Amino acid sequence: xxxxxxxxxGSALEAIIDGLTQGLSETAVxxxxxxxxxxxxxxxxxxxxxxLFQKIxxxxxxxxxxxxxxxxxxxxxxxxxxxxxxxRSKVExxxxxxxxxxxxxxxxxxxxxxxxxxxxxxxxxAKNGDPLTEDLAIGRGRTHEKFAWLLRSHIK
Length: 156
Description:
There is one protein chain. The protein is an all-alpha fold and 156 residues long. 79% of the residues lie in helices and 0% in strands. The chain starts with a helix and ends with a helix.
């Protein structure tokens, strides 16, 4: 059996690790945003949104580990500093001072952004012959699309 990490090299390996790191950073920021919203949501939809936000941050916490472990399997460095994730992420933090509808709209947009990041990663992985990263990215993209749909359904 061949070791994919040793087969990938140079710019192909760098591109894949960069895409994984981007996904990890954005996932980390959305994890904290969803948890923040979970703590601070109020209003008539409190129960359903409180539960949905928890489902999102729990899923994303586990996904961070999957992404970081894939980076390590490819002999990369898995960034663990939240400050670095915030700097790199296209997702912006939120202080939790938002209406329930604003929270839902922001998280829906974040989920769509994450789905796009994962789609781009899947393309890079496929182009460079890394089916394991491609599979991980496709699965994560599918999850983010589903969360985006669930969130959008609350405000239509």
